[in-house]
């Protein structure tokens, strides 16, 4: 007979029944279960990793606004919070972001469209940039991330855009096209705003594994 | 009578140009090497066949298909051998002429095909990806018995280039996190972590005398690292694009570098011939797109470049 895998809650209840945890803690079993349930509810899956790519550049400045006045390209805001797998915010994380400009060109000489943000106590980060352009060698629009934080494993990942013509209107079906995107969840919905200066916004939370 | 290129070299004191053989293939040529005797040029093509051409006439001599589950891992020029990665992740070193198995190295978890072999063929190093969601890299070294000698942390994001010194004392790897790491091949001790580069290194090799490690990459510079101190000894600038490939002529005096345009792989680029005696570029050649591989003939008189096209670029250059 095929058995159902035990959840962490099942295991905890088993332990309580056997007295192994009650002996080690002054908490009542109900409080302990509630505490555990809270942890279960907040637990987050780590953000999938993706390739680092050849164009990472060390030493980027801490800049929240990467888009300079007059820059061509569709204005884009990317924002999110940095968590760990327990659901705790991770202040002090360093979020390195780099991308191609609107024309699909990486600046490897200077630091255009490159930043190294230090996440504050709110756990939030945000950059004002432009929608990255397409380029032949990797024709899905993307932004690179390298996130490091004390006590956590480093994460190398990328964010993609559901509005990208590369996905032909159906990211679920086409995200694996040409083996560029490895994980569907990294293709993020894009909110478009038409009032004032048209711009786009993408939410991208990051979840780090504890070291 | 000596060939014209050598005469010109003798007169001018540096490499001279003459047309090399015209070599064409049915399939795009991705990697190039010379045979051990220098009489043939070998190209690994996009159709997973190795084609061999006569170095003088350019005539096709032989075609060798890789096995259905084999991928080329290395084709070191002038050694008479090739390394292939098998479906189970193991590596096989084969004789280039006979195809016979010379040595095999065991499979490694999540190994990249990028590998480095000592010049005697007895040591092999490969970068492998750490378990789980991580993109941390682990460099592993195996000895001739196929035993893993060590596995050491090798940065984040993968191995961008790797080489073993001519005396097999040092293993060096460049990481896409931009650092170069130097290990003692005996025990995996980290001899030096070179962290002053801001961008990745795409190509590296040791000079034949082992005195310098030569590297090039995204920042277009050619770096010479003193292998006694592992400090930067020289930095040469002149490549108009990122450096994607380099080859050091057998005597060690001339070095060729090939370009990779940051705009697109299909953008035409340059191949430069450097004279390390004067630190000057002595010749500039045109290449149709990203230079994927460069090789000098064993006598140093011919330079070949693979650019992922159906024709191979070859130039006659000076012997030293």
Structure overview:
The complex is a heterodimer of chains A (211) and B (320). With 211 residues, chain A is α/β, with parallel strands linked by helices. Chain A contains three helices and ten strands, in the order ααββββββαββββ. Chain A has helices spanning 8-18, 29-42, 171-174, and strands spanning 75-84, 94-99, 114-118, 124-130, 142-148, 155-161, 187-188, 191-193, 199-203, 206-208. In chain A, the strands form two sheets. In chain A, strands 1, 4, 8, 9 and 10 form a five-stranded mixed sheet that branches. In chain A, a hairpin with a 5-residue loop joins strand 8 (191-193) and strand 9 (199-203). The model of chain A is unreliable at 15-24 (pLDDT under 50). Chain B is an all-beta fold. Helix content of chain B is 3%, strand content 53%. Chain B has one helix at 4-12, and strands at 18-19, 23-34, 40-45, 49-54, 60-65, 71-74, 81-85, 91-95, 101-105, 111-117, 124-129, 136-142, 148-156, 159-164, 170-175, 180-184, 190-194, 201-206, 212-217, 222-226, 232-236, 242-248, 254-260, 269-275, 280-287, 293-296, 302-306, 309-316. In chain B, strands 1, 2, 3, 4, 5, 26, 27 and 28 form an eight-stranded antiparallel sheet that branches. In chain B, strands 6-7-8-9 form a four-stranded antiparallel sheet, with no helix packed on it. In chain B, a hairpin with a 4-residue loop joins strand 15 (170-175) and strand 16. The longest helix of chain B has 9 residues, at 4-12. The radius of gyration of chain B is 19 Å and the shape is globular. The model of chain B is unreliable at 1-18 (pLDDT under 50). Chain A binds chain B through residues 46, 48-49, 51-59, 105-106, 108, 135-137, 146, 153-156, 209, and chain B through 132-136, 156-158, 160, 176-178, 197-200, 202, 218-219, 242, 262-266.
């Amino acid at each position: 007979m095929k058995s159902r895998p035990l959840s962490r809650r099942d295991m905890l209840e088993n332990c309580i029944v056997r007295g192994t945890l009650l002996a080690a803690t002054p908490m009542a079993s109900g409080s302990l279960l509630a505490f555990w349930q809270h942890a279960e509810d907040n637990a987050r899956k780590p953000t999938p990793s993706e390739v680092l790519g050849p164009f990472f550049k060390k030493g980027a400045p801490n800049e929240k606004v990467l888009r300079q006045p007059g820059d061509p390209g569709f204005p884009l805001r990317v924002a999110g919070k940095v968590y760990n797998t327990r659901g705790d915010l991770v202040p002090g994380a360093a979020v390195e972001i780099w991308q191609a400009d609107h024309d699909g060109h990486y600046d490897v000489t200077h630091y255009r469209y490159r930043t190294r943000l230090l996440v504050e106590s709110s756990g939030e980060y945000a950059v004002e940039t432009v929608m990255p352009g397409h380029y032949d060698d990797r024709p899905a629009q993307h932004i690179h991330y390298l996130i490091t934080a004390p006590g956590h494993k480093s994460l190398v990942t990328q964010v993609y855009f559901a509005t990208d013509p590369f996905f032909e209107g159906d990211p679920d079906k086409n995200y694996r096209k040409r083996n560029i995107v490895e994980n569907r969840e990294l293709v993020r919905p894009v909110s478009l705003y038409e009032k004032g200066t048209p711009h786009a916004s993408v939410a991208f939370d990051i979840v780090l594994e504890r070291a | 009578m000596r060939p014209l290129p050598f005469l010109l070299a003798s007169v001018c004191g540096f490499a001279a140009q003459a047309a090399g053989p015209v070599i064409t293939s049915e399939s795009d040529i991705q990697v190039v090497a010379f045979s051990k005797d220098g009489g043939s040029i070998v190209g690994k093509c996009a159709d997973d066949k190795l084609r061999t051409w006569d170095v003088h006439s350019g005539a096709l001599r032989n075609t060798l298909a890789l096995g259905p589950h084999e991928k080329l891992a290395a084709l070191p020029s002038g050694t008479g051998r090739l390394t292939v990665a098998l479906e189970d992740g193991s590596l096989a070193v084969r004789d280039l002429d006979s195809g016979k198995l010379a040595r095999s190295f065991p499979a490694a978890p999540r190994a990249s095909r990028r590998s480095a072999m000592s010049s005697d063929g007895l040591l092999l190093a490969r970068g492998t990806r750490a378990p789980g969601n991580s993109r941390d890299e682990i460099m592993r070294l195996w000895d001739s018995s196929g035993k893993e000698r060590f596995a050491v942390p090798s940065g984040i994001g993968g191995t961008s280039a790797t080489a073993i010194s001519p005396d097999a004392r040092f293993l060096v790897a460049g990481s896409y996190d931009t650092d170069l790491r130097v290990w003692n091949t005996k025990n995996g001790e980290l001899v030096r972590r070179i962290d002053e580069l801001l961008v990745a290194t795409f190509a590296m090799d040791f000079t034949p005398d082992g005195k310098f490690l030569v590297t090039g990459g995204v920042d277009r510079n050619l770096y010479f690292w003193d292998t006694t101190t592992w400090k930067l000894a020289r930095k040469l600038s002149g490549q108009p694009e990122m450096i994607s490939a380099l080859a050091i002529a057998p005597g060690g005096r001339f070095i060729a570098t090939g370009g990779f345009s940051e705009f697109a792989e299909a953008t035409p680029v340059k191949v430069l011939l450097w004279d390390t005696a004067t630190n000057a570029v002595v010749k500039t050649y045109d290449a149709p797109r990203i230079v994927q591989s460069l090789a000098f003939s064993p006598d140093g008189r011919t330079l070949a470049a693979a650019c992922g096209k159906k024709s191979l670029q070859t130039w006659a250059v000076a012997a030293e």
